[in-house]
Design goal:
Layout lengths: L1 E6 L3 E7 L4 E8 L5 H13 L9 E5 L2 H7 L7 E5 L15 E3 L3 E2 L5 E3 L3 H13 L4 E6 L7 H13 L4 E4 H4 L5 H31 L6 E4 L5 E3 H4 L9 H13 L6 E6 L4 E7 L2 E2 L7 E2 L2 E2 L8 E3 L5 E6 L2 E8 L13 H7 L8 H15 L3 H27 L3 H10 L7 E5 L3 H12 L2 E3 L7 H8 L5 E7 L4 E4 L5 E3 L8 H18 L10 E12 L2 E12 L17
Parallel strand pairs: 1-4, 4-11, 5-6, 5-9, 9-10, 13-21, 21-22
Antiparallel strand pairs: 1-2, 2-3, 7-8, 11-12, 13-14, 14-15, 14-18, 16-17, 19-20, 23-24, 23-27, 24-25, 26-27
Helix pairs in contact: 3-4, 8-14, 9-10, 9-11, 10-11, 11-13
């Protein structure tokens, strides 16, 4: 059996599935002041009376890191940057204490300028004096050679005992210096808080005698062992949109093109599934105005949910981009779209008499009938979603995968379906689909699709390998490992691919997820000749491999994992 738990803005949902059907689901009010208790409350509810020994894995989706960053509840992080020659340091405008020190590694990983020990000492003294206990150290080409970052870390820790130092090469192996800075800084800011949360979850599972492996959903729809995620917490940001997308995949027809509309209590998340594959953002997740190296779906959240506040101003209905509590029909204090949907008999939750009461109150302010008032609220909510989808298509059209799809298919993208998930989907999505000329799909279990998406998402592994045959070495970006290749024999592209696959299998084995590596995709493969005089003296191979994002099964369609 598989357990999926999604900690959402309003509810924490849990599902229990046997690999073919959902055999249990629970909803638990999210306590924002204590997300752990919300998660464990949902877990205990779904486990009640079940056979714990039959659980094969537990997967979580949580807003913890998202909330920490959005609400700026993290400790300040100082920066030490080693940009090397050719870049203007004034371009790095991060709103924190920043020291730029001399030193340089070239694009092939060779040291061209030694690190200034004096500048490191001065930076460490300043960081200590200003009271920082966390620092991110990032060199421009550290993913090709980590020696400068290691030296800075060693010197800082020697002079500042207790200082937590995060290094760029351990966070991302990809080029693009500003993105690696942002990713490393956010990792340093959130690591301790997330590690404490993950540790508490693992201990709680142990107390409940659950021995199955625990995973957490990443922003790109893959999963990562919870223990490993403690090292890279920012990978879990935006796991909510990822969960809804994976859940929608599980609940909707295979291979079709669909817009996923996840209507929660506070926000609505939008994502695109192209011929059965979720669309990834080529630039990575954008956090606090900075692009990062966190791979994520090309998704967007808009401030509209079933619990959004509805007010009347100058006789006009307004849906505010904020949540002041639950819907009036569910014991809240003010009107919401959920109340309008309940009044119109479009949703099954809440107290009908209270929905009538609040619509009559609003009608007195609008000068219309309660039915007209409720209809206008629903119409405005639908138009907000339609406008957001139309705007998102402008952004999606800029994604390389979107363009490739149009070239291959030789036609413009038109979604087959609008797939609605979340509590208010049943009431709103049919109207949204009608306005867009698409088929409306609001599947059974749409109310817990995010938890289901977590339960069915497969672990993913990525490897970025760089081989320099002239120097006779290679570097694996993901784990920072390096090695030698023989200079005495011919090394070709097939050798580079085999080496990358071997490293991918090794990483998967280290993470204890090798059983999930059943298919490997070549994302990128490129070769450059190194020329000296008139002769080729070596080659550079850049190879990127990954296991594809996928789900364990499509609900009710027979594709279940091996039991």
């Amino acid at each position: 059996m598989f357990i999926g738990i999604d900690v959402g803005g309003t509810y924490t949902d849990a599902v229990l599935t046997d690999g073919k059907t959902i055999i249990g689901k629970k909803k638990f009010l999210t306590r924002h002041e204590d997300l752990l208790s919300s998660l464990l409350g949902a877990l205990d509810a779904i486990l009640e009376g079940g056979d714990i020994s039959a659980i094969r894995r537990v997967v979580l989706s949580t807003t913890l890191v998202t909330n920490i960053i959005a609400e700026k509840k993290y400790p300040p992080v100082a920066l030490i940057l080693i940009p090397g020659p050719g870049l203007n340091p004034s371009e790095y405008k991060f709103d924190t204490l920043t020291h730029i020190v001399s030193g340089g590694i070239d694009y092939r990983g060779r040291e061209i300028i030694p690190v200034s020990h004096g500048q490191i000492g001065q930076a460490g003294a300043d960081i200590k004096e200003k009271g920082f206990d966390r620092v991110a150290v990032v060199g421009k080409f550290s993913c090709r050679n980590k020696c400068h970052e290691l030296l800075v870390k060693e010197m800082l820790e020697k002079g500042n005992p207790g200082l937590a130092v995060e290094m760029g090469h351990t966070v991302s192996g990809q080029l693009n210096f500003p993105r690696r800075i942002a990713t490393t800084m956010l990792t340093a800011a959130t690591r301790a808080l997330f590690a404490a949360f993950a540790g508490s979850v693992l201990e709680s599972l142990k107390e409940r005698k659950i021995t199955a492996p625990a995973f957490i959903l990443k922003a790109d729809g893959g999963t990562l062992p919870l223990e490993e995620a403690r090292k890279m917490p920012v990978e879990t940001i935006f796991s909510g949109p990822a969960a809804s997308t994976m859940g929608a995949m599980c609940l909707s027809p295979k291979g079709q093109t669909s817009v996923v509309v996840d209507i929660g209590g506070t926000t609505t998340d939008l994502a695109l599934i192209l011929s059965g594959e979720p669309l990834l953002a080529s630039k990575g997740a954008r956090v606090e105005g900075f692009f990062t190296h966190v791979r994520s779906f090309a998704a967007k959240s808009i401030p509209l949910g079933g619990d959004s506040s509805v007010v009347v101003r100058d006789g006009q209905i307004n849906i505010l981009p904020e949540r002041k509590g639950p819907a009036y029909c569910m014991g809240g204090q003010g009107a919401t779209p959920t109340d309008a949907l309940k009044f119109l008999n479009r949703v099954d939750v809440g107290d009908s008499s209270r929905a009538v009461e609040i619509m009559e109150l609003l009608a007195g302010e609008t000068g219309k009938t309660p039915a007209e008032t409720a209809g206008e609220i629903v119409s405005k909510a639908c138009q907000t979603v339609v406008s957001a989808i139309e705007q998102m298509f402008i952004s999606w059209e800029e994604e390389p995968a979107y363009r490739v799809w149009e070239i291959v298919q030789q036609k413009k993208i038109k979604p087959n379906n609008i797939v609605g998930v979340g509590g208010a989907a049943k009431g709103l999505v049919p109207d949204v689909a009608k306005q867009m000329g698409c088929t409306s799909i609001v599947p059974e279990h749409a109310d817990v699709a995010n938890a289901l998406g977590a339960a069915v998402a497969q672990p993913t592994v990525t490897v970025n390998l760089r081989v320099d045959t002239e120097q006779g070495n290679y570097t694996v970006a993901e784990d920072g490992s390096t090695g030698s290749i023989s200079k005495g024999r011919r090394f070709g592209e097939e050798d580079a691919l085999k080496l990358a696959k071997d490293r991918l299998y090794q990483i998967a084995e280290n993470l204890k997820i090798k059983e999930y590596v059943k298919k490997i995709e070549v994302v990128h493969s490129e070769v450059f000749n190194m020329v000296r005089g008139w002769s080729t003296t070596g080659k550079l191979y850049d190879v990127s491999l990954q296991t594809p994002r996928d789900i364990l099964f499509y609900l009710g369609q027979g594709d279940s994992p091996d039991e």
